[in-house]
Amino acid sequence: MKLVQNRMYSYLFLLPAGIIYFVFYLLPTIMSFFFSLTRWTLTKWQFIGFDNYVMFFEESSLKIGFKNTLIFAVVTCGLKVVLALLLATLLTSKIWFKDYFRSMVFFPTLLSTIAVGIAFSTMMHPTQGVINTGLAAIGINGPDWLGNTKLALLSVAFVDVWKGVGIATVIYIAGIMSIPQHYYEALKMDGGNAIRGFWHITLPLSRPAMNSVIILAFIGGLRTFDLIWAMTKGGPGFSTDLIASIIYKQYQAGFYGLATAGNVILFIAIMLLAFPLYMFLNRREVDL
Q1: What is the C-alpha to C-alpha distance for residues 160 and 216, in angstroms, rounded to an integer?
Q2: pLDDT per residue as tens digits for the range 223-232
Q3: What torsion, rounded to 10 degrees, do the Cα atoms 43, 45, 51, 57 define?
Q4: How many CB atoms lie within 10 A of CB 218?
Q5: What are phi and psi of 141, to 5 degrees?
Q6: How far apart are CA 265 and CA 70, in angstroms?
């Protein structure tokens, strides 16, 4: 009896967190699934079944949106994984002003995404932007970064990497600093250099941190909206439209039920893509 009372007493400490989780996450998720089956406004709703899902998949720009979303997620995830690992390796080595460089790498993460988008939109202006002006000073004609349908998506992706690589670097730094130093000392005694230390010690033993960076960066790329909207609003044409921006355009047009169905589809798509990736990475980590 006393054991049961102790357990109930312990569960009471979880109750506030459980209420917050239910009210702000679980309940809105359930309501989203329900309202995706309705035609609703702020004052009334009408149940229409799966019509919203059928209409969403009939969107003319949906195929381009899915393609752009996957490209954006893969490019930003890949660059963050590689660049953050290189930066973390550098910032955990014995260099001067290490703490200053760490703050510089992390600083973009603290900035507003909308502010970053507006700033880079100005910097990437084809004729008056500082980037093309600088290129012109050395005799290079810069492209229209955000007006060229072949460059616009990659241009936004590079800005996303610049802003988000700081978080990935911090995760890597934590992983690298947890590696016991006697591994590196043993390598030095065997005549190994820094490159061998990176390939045979740092890279394999920082795998848990790498897995976290891959999952977070990939999911972040799939659900990106604010930077795309601040820089291109999905243009030119549909060349930078992601699933999230297509959903937002439906909200703007007043198709709330249709947009809610799009959010549910995006949620399911992220789960179907991220969960197998998570299982694969965890299995590789266990094999190590």
Answers
A1: 13
A2: 999 999 999 9
A3: 30
A4: 22
A5: -85, 110
A6: 15
